[in-house]
Amino acid sequence: MAQALSAADLQRRHELEGAPDPFPSLVDDSPVKPRATPRNGVLDTDSQEAFPSLAPAAQPGNKPVATAWGANAGPRIKPQATKQPTFSDTFVLSSIDLSTAGKDGKPTTLGEVMKQVTSQYKVKLEASTNQKLHQTTFFLKADSKKELEKAKKALLALLSPVVSITLNAPASTIPTIIGPKGVTLKQVRDQTGVRIDIPRRDSLAPANGQANGGSHSASGTATPLPTSPIDGDEEEEPTVPITITGPQPLAYEAQALLNEIIATKRSRATQRVRDIPEHVLPFLLPRRAQFEAAADGGEVTLTLNAPAREITVSGDREAVTRVIEAIKSAVEYFKAETISLKFSLPKRQHRLLTGKSTEDIMAKARCAIVVPKPEDPSEELLIWGKPADVGLGVQAVMEKANSAYIHEFPLPGPVSVSRQFLTYMVRVNYPKTLAAANPGVQVYTPPASTWDRASVLNVDIIGEKPKVDAAVSQFSALIGKLFGATKELPIDWLVHRIINSNKNAKKIKGFHEAHNVLVFFPPESAEQSSVLLVYDPTSPNASPSPVEKAKNLEDVEKELLKMARDAADVKTQIIEVEKKWHDAVVGRGGTTLNAIIGEDKTLSIKVGAEAGQPTEDAILVRGISADVDRAVAEIRQIVENAKNDEIVSSYVTEFEIDREYVGRIVGAGGAGVNKLRDTLGVKIDFSDEGEDREKEKESVVGAGGKKKKAVVHQKSRVKIVGRKENVEEAKRRIQAQADRLADETSEVLKIPHQYHSSLIGQSGKYVIRLEEKYGVKITFPRESAADGEGKTREALKADEVLVKGGRKGVAQAKQELLDAVEFEKESNNVLKFTVPQRSVARILGKGGATINDIKDTTGAQIDVDKASDDSTSANITVRGTKKAIADAKAAILAISEQVQEETTATVEVPSKFHRTLIGAGGQGLKELIARCGGPTDSKAQAGLIRFPRQGEPSDEVRLRGEPKLVAKLKAELEKTVKTLKDRVVLAVEVPVAQHRALIGRGGQHLNDLQTRTGAQIQFPGSRSYTQVGEPENAEDLAGVDPANIVKVSGPRAACEKAIEELKSQIKPPAPEGVTGTVTVPLKYHYAVSQQGNLFRQLRSFGVHVEQSVQPSKPAVPPQPASQADAATAARIDDPDADAGATEVQWQIVPNYQDAEEGESVWTLKARDQAGLDRALKLIQEGIEHAEKMTHVGFLTLPDRSMFPRIVGAKGSNVARLRNESGADITVNRDDNTIVIVGSETAIETAKDAILKMTTNNNNRPRGRRDA
C-alpha cells in the first residue's frame, strides 16, 4: 500500500543517493562536539554490536520526528499555498484470474476491470504487461491514502483467485480472536474484506479429531498443528479450525493478522519473516550467528524455507520478537543498500550459476544472483549488490558462466517422439550413465514440467570440450538407435499396478529376453494412461533393421493389451464369516492372510470392521476375478477346517536345491530365511544329503568303449512345516530364488593396469554405477604381490578384471568396460613447456577465466604448475590431441609475450576518494578510461586500474598497461583528486514537512536544483547524509532541530547559490483549523456511522472525527433461535436434511431493547467553519434517523439462489428498496438471512417487496440456457 514517505525514503526509492558523493569530506566524520545521534546513520554491517539491530530505537532524548501527514501534525497548509499531495503504489501480479470477475454481470476482461476500479474510486490506474515474464505491473495514484488502499484492495479482489485457508488456532485464543461482541473479528473482516468462519464450540470434536488432523493449509501458517506443538506445555491443547475464504492476497493478509493475535496470547511464539526478496536472502544466510545473538540469551530456533523465501523463528516470545526485528531490519537494510544490474545469458549457461556457484559468487564478490527457474523461458539474470561490488559481481558471474563448455543437443523428430526418447533416457538414468562414462562431463535434461508445452526438447552436455565432444558422439549414436525403436500404448492407468505386479514380473522381463523390448510404466501419481515400449538400443543382440524393431514392438504390444484386458476384469465379493473364525483366516501375525494374498499383492482383503459393512461378520475381497474366486475358496476352506478342529498346521513338504545356493538363500545371519518364517509362519530346515552318496557316478559305457564320469551337483534337502497354503507359498519362493541364482556366471577381462583407476572412478563411483546398472559384481586387482598376482579373494593378475553376475548383466557390463578402455586409449598426448613467472597471473586470468577460455577454445587440458617464489619460470602441462596441444601452446605464449611489453605506475589517492572515483557499479572507472582513450570492452579494462581492497590501509592506486595509456590515466587521476579536495559543506534550515515537496516526484525538483547549481544536496536520513561530514556553519544552527538541517556540498559558490534557492522555496506555515464536539448515544452509533460511510463522507470535505468511547455490543440484536438452526446443523448425509429448509421464515425483535447505554463525545476537526457546520448537520440528521430505527426483522430464505436478483447490479435493487421503504437492508454473505432495520411499518414493507421479487422470479420461465 502507498505510504507517506519521508525525504530519506524518497531518496532511497529514486536512487538519488545510490551513487557515491563526488565531494567527500576532507575532515573526520566524527562530530566537532557532542550532539544528538542522527536516527539514520551509516551502519557497519561487520560490527557484532551494530548488526543485526539495523534500525535501533531512538534514545529518550531523541524524540522521533512526526510525519507531516498524520493527525497530530499541527496546522495544515492551505490548498492554495501548495499542491495537493498525491499517493502512489506499484505492485506486480504474476498471474491474473478473471474467473471470479465475470459473475453477476461483472467485467470479464482486464481493461473492463481497470475501468470499473477507476470509476468506482478516485484513482488513476495504469498497467504494463511483460509477455516474456508473464507479469503485469500496476501503478495506482490517488489524492488520498484511503482511496488508494480501497482501490488496490478492490483490484486485487477482482484479479486474484478465491482461495480457502484453514488456520488451526489454539482453543484458548478464540475469545481473543473474536473480541468483545465480535469487535476484533469484525475489524479483521472489514480490513481485508474476506470471509472468516469459526465453528461453534458444540460442533467441535471433544479432542483433536478430524477437524484438527485434516487438511492443513499449504500457505505456511504460523500456528502449529496439534501433532507439532511449539512446546511441551501446549501439546495437549485442542485447536479450532478457522476457515478464511476470499481473494488470495487478502486471505493471506487476514491469516497474518489472526496469527499476530494468536501470538500475543502464548508464552512461546513462532513468527516468520515472509516474502524475503529473492536477492536479499543470500545476504542473510551468512549472518545466522548475528541473528541468534539478537535473542540476548533467549532460547530460539531459526529455520530456513528457501523455496518459500521465509525464515521461521521459534522460542521465547521476547527473544523471538528481537530476532524477527533484527531479520526485518537486515532485510530493509539490504533492500536499501543494494542495487541491481540486469543482463542476459543463454539459458544453457544458467545451469552453471546455481547451487554452490551462488555461494562462491557471494563469498568472492559479495553479490547475489537471481536466476530464473529452469521452466521459465526468460534468459535475463539479475545481479544484486552494493554499488561498489556489482562490478566485481559481474566478473564473478561471467567467470562461472564461462567455466565450462556447453553443448546444446536438440532431440530430433516430432516432439511426441522426442518425449519418448527423453522418457527412456530418464527412466534408465542415461544422463548419469553418460556422465560416468565421460568423467568431468555433466548431462542435464529439461524439467519434466516443460515437456508437454515445449516445441523442442534440448539436452545440455557440460564440461571440457574434448570430453563433451566424446559424450555428444555417444549420445548421437544412442539417438540413431532409438529411431523407430519406441512406441506408446494407451492402457488405463488403473490397471498398471496389476499388469506390473510381481505375478507378471517374469513375463514382462521375458519381453526383453525374447523380443529385446523394455516396458516402462509411468508413476502411479502421474495418472497417465500410456505405457512406453522401447526396443533396447544398448543390447548386444539389438537389430538395426527398422522392420525387426517394429515387429518386436508389435508382438509385445499385443501381449500387453491382452494382459490389460485380463487385468480389467476386477470384481469385489463379500462373504459372511462369523467373527470368531477371523483369527484363523488372518493367522498369527497375519501369516495366513499373507499366504492367501500372495507375493504379488494384487488382492485386497478386509476382515471384520475394516470391510466397512453393517456387520462385523464380513470379509471383503477385491481384485482380479480369478484371484478373488481363488481367495474366497481358500478362506471358506480355512474356516471349514477350523470348524472341524482339524490339525492343519502339521503339513510337511520336502524338496532339494543345489547346496551352493543355500548360503545365499539363508542370507547373512539368517536374514533371508527368517523373513520367510515371519511372513508366512512356517518352519524351514536345511540339511545336506547323506554321506554315502558319491560325488561322482559312473555313467553308461560310451561309444568309444570307455567309461565316462558325470559330475553330480551336491544337493541340500529343504523341509518346510506349517499350514498347507503357507508351506506351498514358501516352497515356491525358495525354488524361484534358486532358479535365479543358477543363472549366474563370471568372466575375466584382460585390461591393462594403467587404465584401472579411470575405470574405477573417484571413490569407485564409476564401477559402482556399472554394478548397480547391470546387477553384477566387478573386482579389480589390488596392489601387486611379489608373484605378480593381485591381493584379492579371487586369484587375479595385474591386468585382469573379474565380472560376476547374471549372464546378460555380465555381457552388458563387459561391453561397456571395453568401450571405456578404447576411449581412454584415444587421448594420451602430453606436452610440457615453461613461461616466465610474471606472466602466470595473466595466463590464468581473473578466477581462471582466461585459462578456461583457452581450454574451451582448443579442447585441451591445461595444468599450470606455480613455481616457488625465487623461480623465474613456471611449468605448463597440456594434454589432448596434437592439434589441441599446438593451439593451446600458441595462445599461452601469445599472452606471455604481451606481458613483456607492459609498464606500471602508481598514484597516491586518499582512500576517502576511492569510492567516488570508482562510481556505482564501476561506472566512474569506465568513464575515466574512456576519456583517456582506453578500451571500452569490460574484459580489456580489467586490471588497468587497481584500487586497494576494502579494509586495506593504503592510498596507492596501481596502473598497468601500455605506456601512453598509463601516462594519460595517471594525469587524469591527479587532476580529479585535486578537484575533489577543493570542496566545502554548508547547512541550511528547511522544515521537515517541506522536504518532500522540495525533492519532488521521482526526485525531479532535487535533480533540477543540483544540475542548475552544481552542488550536491543531502536531506536527513539519506545514506550519504553523514558521509559528507560536518558543515562549516554548524555553530550557526546549533539550536535547530537536526531533522530540519539540510547539507549542501560542493564548490563554495555552488553551495551558496543552492542555499539561496532552497530558502526561496520554503513556504510559510498554514493557519490553525477549527474544532467542534457533538454527543452521540452509543446505541445509535452504528446507525449514525452507517458502517463507516459517514466518516468517509466527512473526510471528503476535510473533517476528521475522534470518538471518546466505542460501542462494545453488536450493531443489531442477535437473531432468535428457530428451526433453521437445526436444519443448518444436520449432517450432509442425512436423507431428511432438506426437510426443514424449504420455508421462508420472518422474525421481528425490538432494536434497542438490550442496547448499550451511555454516550460518546465526537470531536470534529475541520479546515474551516463551513466544513465543521456541514459535518454537525449530517451527524444530527443521522441521530434523528437512528431514533426511527425501532425494529429489526430477520428474513430467512430457503437458499441464496435469489440473492443476486434481490441485490441487483451493483446493489441497485437494494438501494431502490431502501428509498421506497425507508428501512436499511443488509444481505449477509455468510448465510441465507436478510437483516432489515427500521420502523415496524418500514421493515414490513421491505419484507413484502423482497418476497414479491422472489415469487415473481420462481413463476417466470427460465430463458437462460445452462452452460
UniProtKB/TrEMBL annotation:
<feature type="domain" description="K Homology">
    <location>
        <begin position="827"/>
        <end position="897"/>
    </location>
</feature>
<dbReference type="InterPro" id="IPR036612">
    <property type="entry name" value="KH_dom_type_1_sf"/>
</dbReference>
<feature type="domain" description="K Homology">
    <location>
        <begin position="337"/>
        <end position="402"/>
    </location>
</feature>
<keyword id="KW-0677">Repeat</keyword>
<feature type="region of interest" description="Disordered">
    <location>
        <begin position="1"/>
        <end position="46"/>
    </location>
</feature>
<feature type="domain" description="K Homology">
    <location>
        <begin position="982"/>
        <end position="1067"/>
    </location>
</feature>
<dbReference type="InterPro" id="IPR004088">
    <property type="entry name" value="KH_dom_type_1"/>
</dbReference>
<feature type="domain" description="K Homology">
    <location>
        <begin position="901"/>
        <end position="978"/>
    </location>
</feature>
<feature type="domain" description="K Homology">
    <location>
        <begin position="743"/>
        <end position="822"/>
    </location>
</feature>
<feature type="domain" description="K Homology">
    <location>
        <begin position="649"/>
        <end position="739"/>
    </location>
</feature>
<protein>
    <recommendedName>
        <fullName>K Homology domain-containing protein</fullName>
    </recommendedName>
</protein>
<feature type="region of interest" description="Disordered">
    <location>
        <begin position="1109"/>
        <end position="1130"/>
    </location>
</feature>
<keyword id="KW-0694">RNA-binding</keyword>
<dbReference type="InterPro" id="IPR004087">
    <property type="entry name" value="KH_dom"/>
</dbReference>
<feature type="domain" description="K Homology">
    <location>
        <begin position="569"/>
        <end position="640"/>
    </location>
</feature>
<feature type="compositionally biased region" description="Low complexity">
    <location>
        <begin position="1121"/>
        <end position="1130"/>
    </location>
</feature>
<feature type="region of interest" description="Disordered">
    <location>
        <begin position="198"/>
        <end position="244"/>
    </location>
</feature>
<dbReference type="Pfam" id="PF00013">
    <property type="entry name" value="KH_1"/>
</dbReference>
<feature type="domain" description="K Homology">
    <location>
        <begin position="1186"/>
        <end position="1255"/>
    </location>
</feature>
<feature type="domain" description="K Homology">
    <location>
        <begin position="161"/>
        <end position="263"/>
    </location>
</feature>
<dbReference type="GO" id="GO:0003723">
    <property type="term" value="F:RNA binding"/>
</dbReference>
<feature type="compositionally biased region" description="Polar residues">
    <location>
        <begin position="209"/>
        <end position="225"/>
    </location>
</feature>
